[in-house]
Design goal:
With about 170 residues, the protein is α/β, with parallel strands linked by helices. The protein has five helices and eight strands, in the order βαββββαβαβαβα. The radius of gyration is 15 Å and the shape is globular. It binds guanosine-5'-triphosphate and magnesium ion (MG).
């Protein structure tokens, strides 16, 4: 069975990085030089694709979308038939925390589906205040999702996210 996992989150939250990190094939990467100042040089404008073989019957397709809302029409191509969603939030970034609210609506995140939130860029500052803000976004929606502080460049962190998604499914 091929299961579809979406990686969503604001610009620079680490979606392309974590897919590169996880994938067992060379990823399809749609990064181009950004035409506007987004605080970094490259940005995703299409769908990143990576792939993990779990066992003989199961493969995971890793789909990364652009963080920029002007490319949100691409989100619609990824949105359907999702098995799981990974939401990345950039630590101490107001826009990124605010974007979480929009993404929960857009991707129709429900408690019963495998979904994990990863707070990235925690290497220089603690993620405590971001965790609190995320929890207060989730609570009114009746969502109790696992929230981890991670480094999207770190393999252990990336694997922890994927193992959690599988554990959520197995516990249901
Ligand atoms: N320090 C640090 N850098 C990170 C982390 N995660 C990603 N990065 C870096 O942040 C930069 C942006 O990451 P991307 O993976 O391009 O972000 P994205 O979410 O794909 O961004 P868009 O495609 O523009 O929406 C890259 O240079 C990464 O190496 C992290 O946890 N800590
Ligand atoms: Mg990207």
């Amino acid at each position: 069975m091929h299961k579809k996992v979406a990686f969503i989150g604001s610009v620079g939250s680490g979606k392309t990085t974590i897919i590169d990190n996880l994938s067992s094939i060379n990823t399809v990467n749609t990064d181009v030089e950004s035409s506007v100042d987004i605080g970094k040089e490259m940005t995703t404008v299409g769908i990143d694709y990576g792939h993990i073989v779990v066992d003989q019957e199961t493969t995971l397709g890793l789909y990364g979308v652009p963080g920029q809302r002007k490319f949100s029409f691409i989100w619609d191509f990824v949105k359907d038939g999702l098995w799981a969603v990974v939401i990345l939030v950039r630590n101490r970034d107001r826009e990124s925390i605010h974007e979480l609210d929009h993404l929960l609506d857009y991707f129709d995140i429900q408690q019963h589906m495998p979904c994990v939130i990863g707070i990235t860029h925690v290497d220089s500052e603690s993620g405590e205040s971001t965790i609190k803000k995320i929890k207060s976004t989730l609570q009114p929606r009746g969502l109790n999702l696992p929230v981890y502080t991670i480094d999207a460049r770190d393999k252990e962190c990336a694997n922890l996210i994927m193992r959690t998604l599988i554990a959520i499914e197995e516990s249901q």
